[in-house]
């Protein structure tokens, strides 16, 4: 833990809120957003904090970015405490929280970066070259968007600019809250590739939050799964998948006769599955997804096929899938995305 670039120990944070009870009565309520969160991130690593909405991801990154004080616990970046040495921390991190916030709508992307570069103490040739390099790096130059007004930017362009700003001072540590949320696929892909490159080739340390398991799987070297303010698992994606080894997901596409309801079908399959059963209509037919034990997968598959047959379903396609991060996530958090 000692060489960790980002070290988080037992962070706790509660918010006081008021719940409306009728017209005049308000009830005070405490929300425990973080209930003792600990993790460490090594140099050159892309580390993902993965969790559903409300899990505590934003609270964690705000504390690490020195924007919010924890109630207790400690966090440090490059050995600097985020509370005591906040100024030192700020000098060494690049942050992108809410993508749309904090830019000037009536300035171009380039002008925005020049403005922030000046705030960060860059100037002259160095500033202009650095801004140009960042505009190229995040692909705004290729999109012909560097000199467009920010107010004309698509969400993908705004996200790119936000990352460009985070990278402007060449920080050792990048902290990004849901950087690809709502982006078009090309922008999301470009940003992921960029983050992997700056971590693996330039040795920067990257913390990203996401509620997207696919993203965590392709982007992150290690992942901490957070739920209700608690880290419930932390490992490489492969390691996490090992938590549900012994289980596979059976996917069947079948036609459903009109007299059989989806609930009837689900009930019939649930008898033989070890985990969750999902039934949903698709273009090809009804899709049945069931987590089954990998040891008895042949037997169980036969049993499911027999059940489908007796309900009058005809099977179009059948596939056995190895566990994904999604399976781990659902197993540990008890909910999907
Ligand atoms: N400013 C706030 N006031 C009151 N409650 C908050 C505030 N910010 C977050 N929360 C609550 O804290 C919990 C964690 O929120 P957050 O850290 O934003 O989660 P995430 O980013 O994973 O969605 C949620 O229950 C949320 O409603
Ligand atoms: Mg959030």
Task: Provide structural commentary.
By secondary structure, this protein is of the alpha/beta class. The protein folds into 2 domains: 6-235, Rossmann fold; 247-333, Alpha-Beta Plaits, CATH 3.30.70.120. 34% of the residues lie in helices and 31% in strands. The chain is built from 11 helices and 14 strands. It has helices spanning 57-64, 86-92, 109-119, 124-137, 155-167, 185-200, 213-219, 237-242, 262-270, 297-310, 325-333; strands at residues 6-21, 25-41, 46-50, 72-77, 80-81, 93-96, 173-177, 205-210, 222-227, 230-235, 247-255, 277-281, 286-293, 314-321. The strands form 3 sheets. The protein has a 6-stranded mixed β-sheet with strand order 6-7-8-3-9-10, with helices on both faces. Helix 3 packs across helix 4 and helix 4 (124-137) packs across helix 5. The longest helix is centred in the middle third of the chain and has 16 residues, at 185-200. The radius of gyration is 24 Å and the shape is globular. The structure holds adenosine-5'-diphosphate (ADP) and magnesium ion (MG).
């Amino acid at each position: 833990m000692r060489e960790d670039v980002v070290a988080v120990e037992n962070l706790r944070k509660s918010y006081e809120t008021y719940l409306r009870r009728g017209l005049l009565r308000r009830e005070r309520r405490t929300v425990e957003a973080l209930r003792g969160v600990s993790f460490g991130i090594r140099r050159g690593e892309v580390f993902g904090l993965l969790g559903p909405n409300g899990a505590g991801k934003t609270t964690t990154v705000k504390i690490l970015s020195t924007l919010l004080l924890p109630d207790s616990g400690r966090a440090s970046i490059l050995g600097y405490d985020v509370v005591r040495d906040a100024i030192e921390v700020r000098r060494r991190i690049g942050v992108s929280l809410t993508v749309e916030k904090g830019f000037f709508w009536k300035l171009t992307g380039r002008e925005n970066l020049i403005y922030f570069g000046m705030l960060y103490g860059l100037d002259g040739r160095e500033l202009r070259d650095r801004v140009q390099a960042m505009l190229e790096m995040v692909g705004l130059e290729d999109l012909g968007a560097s000199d467009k007004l920010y107010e004309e930017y698509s969400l993908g362009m705004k996200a790119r600019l936000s990352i460009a700003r985070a990278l402007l001072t060449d920080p050792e540590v990048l902290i990004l809250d849901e950087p690809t949320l709502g982006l078009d696929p090309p922008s999301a892909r470009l940003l992921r590739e960029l983050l992997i490159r700056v971590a693996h080739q330039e040795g920067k340390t990257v913390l990203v939050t996401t509620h997207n398991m696919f993203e965590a799987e392709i982007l992150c070297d290690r992942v901490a799964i957070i739920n209700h303010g608690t880290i419930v698992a932390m490992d490489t994606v492969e390691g996490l998948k090992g938590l549900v080894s012994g289980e596979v997901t059976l996917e069947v596409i079948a036609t459903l006769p009109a007299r059989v309801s989806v609930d009837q079908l689900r009930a019939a399959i649930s008898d033989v599955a070890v985990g969750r059963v999902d039934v949903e209509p698709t273009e090809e037919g009804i899709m049945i997804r069931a987590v089954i034990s990998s040891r008895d997968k042949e037997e169980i598959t036969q049993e499911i096929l027999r059940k489908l047959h007796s309900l009058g379903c005809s099977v179009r396609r059948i596939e056995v899938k190895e566990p994904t991060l999604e399976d781990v996530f659902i197993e540990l958090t008890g909910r999907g995305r």
